[in-house]
Amino acid sequence: MSEHIEARGIVKTFSVRGSRAPVRAVNGVDIVIPRGRTLGLVGESGSGKSTVGRCLLRLLEPTEGTVRHGEHDVLAMKPETLRRHRARAAMVFQDPYESLNPRMRIRSVVEEPLMLHTDLEPSARRRRAAELMRLVRLEEFHLDRFPHELSGGQLQRIGIARALATDPEFLVLDEPTSSLDLSVRAGVLRLLKRLQRELGITFLFISHDLTTVAAMSDEVAVMYLGTVIEKGPAAEVLGNPQHPYSQALLSAALSVDPEGRRVRHVLEGETPSPVDLPPGCPLASRCPLVRNDCRLAVPPLFEVSEGHGAACVRVPEGTNVLPAVGPVPIVTAS
Ligand SMILES: Nc1ncnc2c1ncn2[C@@H]1O[C@H](COP(=O)(O)OP(=O)(O)OP(=O)(O)O)[C@@H](O)[C@H]1O
């Protein structure tokens, strides 16, 4: 299966007022997603998930790293090439109401990307808008409504229709169902699955909700403090987590193991500030299993099983080192 989205060594820092040191929001992340597949990106609030998603779309300029979309070097694009490239990749935001202009009719919301990134005539834009309504299972009359006249679930379908307007190959879905009632969540997730199947779109699915990620993802990457600390096939990472942070995240969410026993992996203490990152494993200051060598260097992703890696020195020695998410060559540790 061909790699579709491939980002290497992504670093993103933000300068903040009143602080001489920048916030290191993303600290050397690799992302590889094969065409038509879903990578779920999980981690607590502030771990850098949205910043990674925005860097992949170049809605933010990474401070370091490379981003490839198919054959295209996204970060090397000049403005006009980038404008046309924006038709190939789009983002669906968490809160559909917040992300839509309340004064724009839905038709303008849906047609806007066509105006910005394509040269379609008005009549072709209208036809495309009607087609998009059918695709997301809404009625054509919704195009003449304003955002406040639609329900949360309908608005998120509009957010999806807008993202699909230019027939993109890649979508970043940033917590696309977190603001929705449970009763409409499943419908939106089913819609996304169907669209992916029918249109062959590649997804980066960002969420802190592990149940949703489990249902949506082929592979999962777990982020902590700007770093991917575990990644691999979704069933492996979520069913057999090896990094103490992933174990804590999962036990907080599930609180029972596969045999039905209650398990608790509690992390004490505060997450360190991304302005002042510790030198070794980012979890060292909170990890119940910490050893001296954890504080020396950031551990690489040690291979737990095929394609499943965890950046923890306690993963058995003598294993391979996984350099990135997805089907990439595996380097044997010396
Ligand atoms: N524009 C910005 N200026 C300064 N700091 C920022 C900016 N954007 C993000 N950050 C910081 O970068 C870190 C990562 O933020 P990010 O939003 O990517 O995390 P996240 O995992 O997506 O969290 P959430 O789930 O809450 O959206 C946080 O410490 C955040 O405060």
UniProtKB/TrEMBL annotation:
Pfam families: ABC_tran (PF00005), oligo_HPY (PF08352). It comes from the Bacteria. GO terms for molecular function: ATP binding. Transmembrane segments: none annotated. Keywords: ATP-binding, Nucleotide-binding, Transport. The keyword Transport applies. Residues 5-250 form the ABC transporter domain. Belongs to the ABC transporter superfamily. This is ABC transporter ATP-binding protein. It comes from Nocardioides deserti.
